[in-house]
Specification:
This protein has 1 helix and 6 strands. The protein is of the alpha+beta class. A 6-stranded antiparallel sheet has the order 1-2-3-4-5-6, with no helix packed on it. The chain is globular and about 35 Å long.
Amino acid sequence: MLRHPIRYLILTHILLGILIRFMIFGDVAEGAEPILISAPEQAYQCGVKSLLNGLTEIAYDTDQNGIADKFTLTRQGITHPLFYAQDANEDGRWEMVVKDIEEDGVNGNEREYLKVLQAGK
């Protein structure tokens, strides 16, 4: 049973919007500088969902406060994630999504896919 079903519904809606935008317009930040990110350790994993579009979302609680703050999205049957997402302020909206173009793990060829600017910054 999901602890926060509305939050997961909102996250799924955001993800589908991102994927639809990608399918229509291609990479949002194509040609951007490489972004070095870190994949969360499995010990921080706090949830797994299979999405209707063939992706598996894994949520991580890296600050151990009971709210997921990092996410990976992996195509089913593939080892490395396609997307890495971060919800830094833990409000249920991803502020940054990074795409691993080659799906070869974190090695420097990742590109910023979506970055939401916070109000007041």
